[in-house]
Every structure is written in structure tokens, then in C-alpha cells.
Specification:
About 9% of the residues have low confidence. The longest helix is centred in the N-terminal third of the chain and has 15 residues. The protein has 176 residues and is mainly beta. The chain has two helices and ten strands, in the order H-E-E-E-E-E-H-E-E-E-E-E. The strands form two sheets. Strands 1-2-3-6-7-8-9-10 form an eight-stranded antiparallel β-barrel. The protein has a two-stranded antiparallel ribbon with strand order 4-5. Strand 4 and strand 5 form a beta hairpin.
């Protein structure tokens, strides 16, 4: 019971003490969280730097920790594969990204930042839609949906799909 009351108090305090989610030029946000997708799950980290009132740029990296093994015949090959796991290069992806921070354009709560954007990465050119909500001046939560627009390769490698698909991320957001 005491833990429940304490948790409720912290949530209410966080909501009442919430701060502005995106301030514009000079703003720095860091997101750290889980990356969930078909065939695996992992971690994602990103940093965004404010350039103007509604524009930011940044970097995002992801690494798949839990990846399904592959067994069978791949893509019509006659060679059987047994319990094949992806290499580091198949699990890791890094991207440069730009965001349009439009929470204030829609005149939503100033504690909420909504940001669609584009990304240019090691595996593809893609897009994302995200949101973050700050409970305090330095801490909040974020969620993002990512998707590829164009792959760089027609090479249909066994694990090529891992970084070329729809992704869902959620975690903690920090204001620096």
C-alpha cells in the first residue's frame, strides 16, 4: 500500500512539475530505450539538437540484442542453414536525422513534443514519427515509429530485413 501511494505521489508531482518539451535553438534531448521489431528486439539511443523554434537534427543508433536464428533453405538456395545468427553488421544501424518539432504548431500541451522526421542511415533512407513528454525539467518518456522509404541494396541477404522494416521504440528522454 505504501509503495502504491508513493508511486501515485511521484506521478502526480511529475505531472504538475512538467516543463516545456522542446524549446528550440540550443535545446538538447537524449533518448534511450527499447527497440521492438519483427525478428528481434534491442536498444536504441538518440540525441537531438535544436536549430530553430520547430527544427532539430540529430543522430540515432540501434543494436539488436535478441534476434531470431535462421534454419532452413534461404531464398531458394540449395544450401541448408542451421541456427544461423546475424553478425554485428547485421544487428547495428546508425542514422543522421532531421525533425520537425510541431507540438507547439498544433497548440498541444507544452510538455508534449511531436516530431516527424527523415533519417539517412547505414542501411536505408527512412522516416520516423515520435513524441516525448517531459515530467520534469530533465526527465520524460518518448516513443517513436520508424520505417524505411528506400533500401540501399537489392542484395537480398538473409538478415537484410532486420534494419529495413517498421520499428517501434519507447523509453526515457532526458533534457540536457
Amino acid at each position: 500500500m505504501k509503495k502504491g501511494i508513493t508511486l501515485l505521489f511521484l506521478i502526480l508531482f511529475g505531472i504538475t512539475q512538467a516543463q516545456e518539451a522542446f524549446k528550440g535553438k540550443g535545446d538538447i534531448k537524449v533518448n534511450v530505450g527499447a527497440n521492438i521489431q519483427d525478428g528481434g528486439s534491442g536498444i536504441q539511443g538518440s540525441v537531438d539538437f535544436g536549430l530553430a523554434e520547430n527544427f532539430s537534427y540529430g543522430f540515432v543508433g540501434s543494436y539488436l540484442l535478441g534476434v531470431n536464428e535462421f534454419s532452413g533453405f534461404y531464398n531458394g538456395s540449395e544450401t541448408p542453414y542451421n541456427n544461423v545468427k546475424p553478425d554485428f553488421k547485421d544487428r547495428f544501424d546508425a542514422k543522421f536525422r532531421i525533425n520537425a518539432n510541431i507540438g507547439n504548431v498544433f497548440n498541444v500541451d507544452e510538455k508534449l513534443d511531436i516530431y516527424p522526421g527523415l533519417s539517412l542511415g547505414l542501411k536505408n533512407f527512412g522516416g520516423h514519427v515520435g513524441g516525448r513528454y517531459l515530467f520534469t525539467e530533465g526527465f520524460g518518456v518518448f516513443t517513436e515509429l520508424g520505417f524505411p522509404i528506400a533500401k540501399y541494396s537489392d542484395d537480398n541477404d538473409m538478415f537484410d530485413h532486420l534494419n529495413n522494416q517498421f520499428t517501434f521504440s519507447l523509453g526515457a528522454s532526458f533534457n540536457l
